[in-house]
Amino acid sequence: MVKEEIKFDIKVYDSIDELNHEDAFLLNQARSVTQFAYAPYSKFQVGAFAKLMNGETVSGTNQENAAYPAGICAERTLMSTASSLYPGIGIETIAISHRNLNGNSDYPISPCGICRQSFVEFQLRTNQSIRIILGGQEGRVQIIENALDLLPLVFGAKDLK
Ligand code: THU
Q1: What's the domain count of the chain?
Q2: 132/114 Cα distance (integer angstroms)
Q3: N or C: more exposed end of the chain, with fewer CB within 10 A?
Q4: 134 lines ligand 1 (CB under 6 A)
Q5: pTM for this structure?
Q6: CA angle 8, 91, 7 (to 5 degrees)
Q7: What digits encode the pLDDT tens for the residues 51-64?
Q8: Alpha-carbon span 60 to 52, nearest angstrom
Q9: In terms of residue numbers, what domain contains 141?
Q10: pLDDT 10s digits, 122-131
Q11: Residue 13 domain-assigned?
């Protein structure tokens, strides 16, 4: 038996003020687009805003449904938009923010498991790692350099060969 350790780095900043201009812009946009979420059930609005490898930007928000599982997260809305408008183009950096209408929005949230799986597929199909900026409407910010870090031991196309 050998023990293997899986590690990854995460950068933590006290606030958006410590980010460079472009990262701060992306996070501010993610904060702002939370207003376009459709979240009447959870009251938890999520906004995502990304810069693509072709320089274009796209946004996404969560879109809920009375039949709860039919809802979709902001991150996957964004990925669907990106690959529909600009097929094959990778995401360079995505910022994700939220506004909890029933609580605090001053801390980062990180993507759900399904979105992590979708990020990995998106990375593989575009051959481009995705950098992730996480932050609430205020407060500390986290940066993860590669979405794959969020899903160790991932299942993927390689396993279907
Ligand atoms: N949600 C997202 O859009 N992204 C996340 O990373 C976490 C959760 C949405 C799904 C649902 O509409 C609401 O937030 C509460 O779970």
Answers
A1: 1
A2: 16
A3: N
A4: no
A5: 0.97
A6: 5
A7: 999 999 999 999 99
A8: 13
A9: 19-160
A10: 999 999 999 9
A11: no
